Amino acid sequence: MSSDDSVDTIIIGAGPAGLTAGVELVRAGRKDVILVEASAHMGGLARTLDYKGNRIDIGPEAFVSESAWVMNWWRGMLPVALPPDAGDEKTFRRDRPGTWPLLGPGAPMPTEAGDALLLRQRRSHVRFDDLAVDLPPPPRAQLARMLGPGASARAALDVTRARLWPIRPERSLADYLVNRYGRTLYLRFFKPHAEKWWGLPCEEIAAACGPTCIAELSPTAPVDTMLYPKRGSDAAAKRFEAGGGRILRRTRLVGVEREGDRIVGVSIEAQLGAVLRLAPKNLISTIPLKDLAVIMQADLPDFIGSIGTQLQYRAIVCVGVLYRRLRNPRAAEVEVGPGMQPVDDCTIHVQDVRLKVARVQIVNNWSPHMVADPGTAWLGLEYFAREDEGLWSMSDAALKALALREMHKLGLADEADALDATVLRVPKAAPAYYGYAYEHFADLRAHLDGIRNLWLAGRNGMHRQGRQDLAMLTARRAVEAIVAGRSDKSAIWNAGSELDPEGRTGKAPS
User: Fold this and answer.
1) Of 112-126, 130-144, 260-274, 316-330, the least confident
2) Under DSSP, is residue 159 helix (H, G, I), strand (E, B) or coil?
3) In the list 134, 246, 256, 428, which could disulfide-bond 313, CB 3.0-4.6 Å?
4) Which of 431, 219, 395 is CA-nearest to residue 319?
5) CB 17 within 8 A of CB 459
6) Least confident of 187-201, 270-284, 290-304, 340-354
7) What is the DSSP string of 293-316?
8) Is residue 313 within 8 Å of 41, Cβ to Cβ?
9) How does residue 5 score in pLDDT terms, banded at 50, 70 and 90?
10) Residues 6+ apart with CB under 8 A from 242
11) What is the 3-state secondary structure (H, E, C) of 73-90?
12) Is 18:284 a contact under the CB 8 Å cutoff?
């Protein structure tokens, strides 16, 4: 590669959106497609990390989507494995008609011997105060008994009041949630979750955060079966490279040159400090929009640059803990072993304001193949923070000690049963819908959309909340526009129309 190469497309960031864009461009026959990734790992916010043979995903997501295109895309990367106890494929399909959207139309199903997508049970529950509520919530009568007659009656009255006299205009997340669930359920069920995640009172968070909050704690019944990669997946990266695409790992974007309404050059820096200048016909950015704005600031009007460089985010601190055994606070203690788990949830949402942990991921239940020793339990405790908060800057030793104490308080494990632990920090894990920059986001979006060959895609690339299927669909629309020679970006911002806006995606900033 020379110091000033002309290339078809450069993609910045190898998360779900970047990998999708790369694979789709290669499939469309585009040559000279380069994917630039600052880390050594593929996957971005959906990446799988390995600690002594124990794999862990940061904020794992079920591979389930209402988009047939996304489901077919995933199955094109990895086949769906027939569960070991399923018998023959024909009988399994006949006896499990509800799994057809996951299995696809008649594709061969290998056993779990090789890399594959596994069919897994999708279970979770919410812990608040000393109460545990399964997701989806139980029937109304049972939930009422759990809340108690007084709270149940207040909840019913509040829902009726909210429907008759909704808050208008609906500005804040508090307004959004009270209008849909009434004040009693908002205070008991949604407010602790949202404020633990965002670190601000719900009155200071934009109403546009509402769909994401509901997606986390949806009162509607989710699909009870999901697909999940057996060991995490870099299949998309392999497919991209096999098709002729190039991946530059440990390489970051450091400069963008602009002439009028076009990008004419980018500078990328490799791990050892060598800087290359490339001249792409198209630039797809999936990195945090704030980072792109900082790099482009010299070529942006002052007002636009001030918006982009002040965008805010939430970070995730994940403490991975390996246990000899778990305890089930709702049942007798049992040993962890092949085919049996003491807690059958994939995710436990912790609303309890007395604890800092927000979610507990039980990796064994996402995929048992991600745990090195099937006789141990491998967990990820997720803490949400800003990068200027004390929790983010705590030492690894202090974070590990905090995780062990909180697992004990939850009744899930004894500190003496912890075998090992590690700490993972993920900056800019979720774009924030609050603050000066968000209030003026439309101006930033309009300006960047006016750069004809710059394409924003993905959650961080578009500063848009949502799941990985939404990120993939934005990349698909960007590629379609590039291949068709269009410069209009509206289809990208409207991507995901087939997804349920309150159960699957977040609303795009307008």
Assistant:
1) 130-144
2) helix
3) 428
4) 395
5) yes
6) 340-354
7) HHHHGGGS-HHHHHHHHT--EEEE
8) no
9) confident
10) none
11) HHHHHCCECCCCCCCCHH
12) yes
For residues 140-177, b (16+ Cβ closer than 10 Å) or e, as one string?
eeebbeebeeebbebbeebbeebeeeeeeeeebbbbbb
pLDDT at 502 over 60: no
| Secondary structure element (H or E) that encloses residue 439, with its range | helix 435-439
Q: In this structure, are residues 457 and 475 in contact, taking their beta carbons and an 8 Å threshold?
A: yes
Joined together, the tokens standing for residue 456 give 């924003």
- Token pair recorded at residue 12: 């910045």
Q: How far apart are CA 421 and CA 381, in angstroms?
A: 11
What count of other Cβ atoms lies within 10 Å of the Cβ of residue 36?
26
Residue 213: pLDDT band (50, 70, 90) is confident
Give me the residues paired with residue 285 across strands.
Answer: 12, 456
- Interatomic CA distance for residues 242 and 297, integer angstroms: 36
d(C-alpha 360, C-alpha 357), whole Å: 8
Residue 192 pLDDT level (bands cut at 50, 70, 90)? confident
pLDDT tens digits, one per residue of 475-495 = 999 999 999 999 999 999 999
For 237-262, the three-class secondary structure string (H helix, E strand, C coil) is: HHHHHHCCCEEECCEEEEEEEEECCE
> Under a CB-based contact definition with an 8 Å cutoff, are residues 350 and 192 in contact?
no
Matching residue, tokens 């291949």: 483
Task: Return the amino acid letter for 240.
Answer: F
Collapsing DSSP states into helix, strand and coil, what is residue 222?
A: coil
Q: C-alpha angle 373/377/379, rounded to 5°?
A: 120
**Distance (Å, whole) CA 294 – CA 298:** 8
- Residue 407 tokens, joined: 């697992």
Select the more confidently predicted residue: 502 or 241. 241
Q: Which two tokens stand for residue 171?
A: 């500005």
Check: CB of residue 34 under 8 Å from CB of residue 250. no
Beta bridge partners of 63: 227
| Residue 461 structure tokens | 């690339």
Do 208 and 509 contact (CB within 8 A), yes or no? yes
Question: In 136-281, which residue ranges form alpha helices assigned H by DSSP?
Answer: 140-147, 149-164, 173-185, 191-198, 210-216, 235-242
What is the pLDDT of the chain when averaged over all its residues?
Answer: 86
Instruction: Return the number of other C-beta atoms located less than 10 Å from residue 497's C-beta.
Output: 10
Summarize pLDDT for 427-477 with one digit per residue, the tens: 999 899 888 999 999 999 999 999 999 999 999 999 998 889 999 999 999
Mean pLDDT of 296-320: 96
- 261, 452 Cβ separation under 8 angstroms: yes
Write down the residue that tokens 């436990």 correspond to: 348
What is the maximum span of the chain, computed from C-alpha positions, in angstroms? Answer: 74
Residue 138 and residue 158: Cα distance in Å, rounded?
Answer: 20
